[in-house]
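User: Before I run my own analysis I want an independent prediction to cross-check against. Here's the chain; please return only the structure tokens and, at the end, one sentence I can use as a sanity check.
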Amino acid sequence: MTAFSSDTIIVSGLSGSGKSVALQSLEDIGYYCIDNLPAVLLPEFTNCLPQGIDVTEESFPGAAIGIDSRNQHFLEQLDAQLAELESQGKRCRIIFLEADESKLVTRYSETRRKHPLTDRSTPLIEGIRLERQLLQPLHDRAEKIIDTTDTTPHELRGLIRDFAGGGLSSGPLFLIESFGFKHGSPREADFVFDARCLPNPHWEPDLRLLTGLDKPVVKFLESKPTVREMRDEIFGFLEKWLPGFVSENRSYITVAIGCTGGQHRSVYITEQLRHLFSKRQINVQVRHRELSK
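Assistant: Structure tokens:
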């Protein structure tokens, strides 16, 4: 029997971007979480994690470590520590959270917290910029970068759970997300497709309160040749270019399908793509952003 290899995630990012929410989300789904671990202790910490044939994904899915600018005295050694882990056949996935400067300033003014890199001679905006520069190596190493400028804590928890769910899969995790343009485009998407040109069930009184998951809406959209044509063309495009992402060792790919409100057309197209890619034995996750609110 092959021993189960648990997942190890490094959560990093700018102060005020949502790292605490990310760690709490991972803890909620069973990860052992530790915040602000000195980078020099990373190999020793991973060696202490449960391992062996008795360890399963259900009993111990993995560990998450928060590493950010509070770790500034040890960050220079992080590359060496990660290289040591890789030499032992271990891999740490890195997720990096960021946000616009103006949003970070607003969040700090609302909470009255002190930024870790500010002092009497360093104002908040300079501390944020210094932190961004200090953490650039982690940003560049990250498998997933999430901009939380317009992301609610609820939405961030969903993104973190999706990321964690792809850690133990074979091949890249393919996330397809429906959304509504009137609520803003997903910043983390690798590809965005616009379905607003398709016939809109919203203008059908019997369908207005339903979603793209409901059979009457599905029947309505499937009867429209333009809907089928867009579905097939998006699928063909992604099927053609997905192998390129695999060859680049990308482990997380996000495709966003948008319509006006994120209720009908984008949901239907997303579900159709899930079905088509699942038949190709591709690991697919689906998230309906507006329906989850």
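Sanity check: The chain has two domains: 7-165, 173-288.
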